[in-house]
């Protein structure tokens, strides 16, 4: 028999906690649970961290400048991405497979976060508000929702800026190095990238910390190691990506 959970005063009807559908496939049943959503968030977050790390390593070629053949190293890197597994696969094929996979990971991550928040709210009894221990909670954990929103809009801006070329900077097909310089030489755009990558670092820090909890690795004896790993994963991606716009807008890299 379905049970109802009292709602806040003024709500139209009680929230019904429905029993799991026994006919749904196991993956669907697992995802509908709080534990399943946490695992999806952890795995999709780890996959996106891997993409960010690989993307950052590739962008470090900005500092190499020109190769002996006269082409910028960053342009060579972009060409290599477009021709992954060529001639076995046509140009752009593998790149688009990776892009679609990344988009799916993002959709799963966002959906799991939203629905898990809704589940947590529905599970609270009427009139009860869990006390928030702001002393124990750090800034990154309290701002997780805000940083997530910032990152979402940053991804859209980044794609429009350097892929769809719609933010007004000089843009030439295949000239990855010059396109990046032209965009980030604008102080306002550089500031957007700095703020967004600070949000990425904070989000990664708390996300990595939460991932260990999801996997059951939350013994107090391991807290120091968990903190160091979370800080390391956030720093490896956050600091280099923050430096790109700063070094370009200050003409250290041109």
| Low-pLDDT stretches | 1-17, 132-136
> How much beta, percentage-wise?
under 5%
Radius of gyration: 22 Å
Helix residue percentage:
55-70%
Rough outline: globular
Topology order in helix (H) and strand (E) letters: EEHHHHHHHHH
Total number of beta strands: 2
Number of helices: 9
Strand order within the widest beta sheet: 1-2
- Main beta sheet: strand number and arrangement? 2 strands, antiparallel
Please outline what is shown here.
The chain is built from nine helices and two strands. It is mostly helical and 254 residues long.
What does this structure look like?
The protein is mostly helical and 254 residues long. Helix content is 63%, strand content 2%. Helix 2 packs across helix 9. The longest helix has 30 residues. The chain is globular, with a radius of gyration of 22 Å. The protein has a two-stranded antiparallel ribbon. It contains nine helices and two strands, in the order ββααααααααα.
